[in-house]
UniProtKB/TrEMBL annotation:
Family matches, as InterPro entries: GP_PDE_dom, PLC-like_Pdiesterase_TIM-brl
Lineage, uppermost ranks: Bacteria, Pseudomonadati, Pseudomonadota, Alphaproteobacteria, Rhodobacterales
Native source species: Pikeienuella piscinae
GO MF terms held by the record: phosphoric diester hydrolase activity
Protein name: GP-PDE domain-containing protein
GO biological process: lipid metabolic process
Residue ranges that the Swiss-Prot or TrEMBL entry lists as coiled coil: none
Residue ranges annotated for the GP-PDE domain, each copy included: 6-243
Domain of life of the organism encoding this protein: Bacteria
Length: 253
């Protein structure tokens, strides 16, 4: 039986080309024919979803402080480091992506206390539905609590897993029955932690399996050949080259 070539997921808007999370990066990802784009959402102090990876601003933006303690108007006027404009709101990103065919993997971040943002789900769903994108979204988080109740509202949900970085996450193999009960469809594992045994356990339990964040030609070549469903990368253009070669060879579908 032929192996399905993994989907290529542009991480944080194709960060290898433009400043991460800039509107230009999302436009480039959508125009470049990638399967999916992954990005992160925080909630501002005035209750608005904003697209940014880090909890604190200083490494990726020309500002200091915690992102959840800032107002949206201040953040959307804050330049990103490396160029590409200012920090975008979720509405701005969805406006740029809605007319493309690219699927969206939206990660719900947690606040400074590592708890779900109060009101995040309602504001996120309102933005998604405003743009008619519900059927193109997978909502994800490291924290199952951030996704509680979303399956009942018709969303596909995914868990990001990396116990080496986040030791508070339970052992994955022991956690699988509970995750299945909660309605998770996808499990994305930090690539260093996805062993053959763990992959087999995930497959046996009926989950879609992905890896994040894979960079460099050698690693991308390896992971694009594995029996997994998606590969998240800061170098989606390189990953797409390997995927195209697989499809051309006829070894995959």
């Amino acid at each position: 039986m032929p192996m399905i070539a993994p989907s290529v997921v542009a991480h944080r808007g194709g960060a290898c080309v433009h400043a991460e999370n800039s509107l230009m990066a999302f436009e480039w990802s959508a125009a470049s024919g990638f399967c999916e784009v992954e990005f992160d959402v925080h909630l501002t102090s005035d209750g608005e979803p904003v697209v940014f990876h880090d909890l604190r601003l200083h490494q990726a933006a020309e500002a200091e402080g915690v992102i959840g303690e800032k107002r949206l108007a201040d953040l959307t006027a804050t330049p990103l480091r490396g160029g590409g404009g200012a920090i975008p709101s979720l509405d701005q990103v969805l406006t740029r992506l809605r007319d493309s065919s690219i699927r969206l993997r939206i990660e719900l971040k947690t606040d400074v206390a590592q708890k779900p943002y109060e009101g995040m789900q309602a504001r996120l769903i309102a933005a998604i539905d405003k743009h008619g994108l519900r059927d193109r979204c997978v909502l994800s988080s490291f924290s199952p609590a951030a996704l509680d109740g979303l399956v009942e509202q018709g969303f596909s949900i995914a868990l990001w897993y990396a116990r080496e970085q986040k030791p508070w996450q339970p052992d994955l193999n022991q956690w699988l029955p509970e995750l299945k009960e909660m309605g998770f469809r996808d499990i994305a594992v930090q690539f260093k932690e996805l062993t053959a045994e763990r992959m087999a356990a995930l497959r046996e339990a009926g989950f879609n399996v992905g890896v994040w964040t894979v960079n460099g030609p050698a690693r991308l070549d390896y992971w694009m050949r594995q029996p997994i469903d998606f590969v998240v990368s800061d170098q989606p253009d390189v990953a797409a080259t390997f995927r195209a070669a697989q499809l051309k060879s006829g070894a995959t579908t």
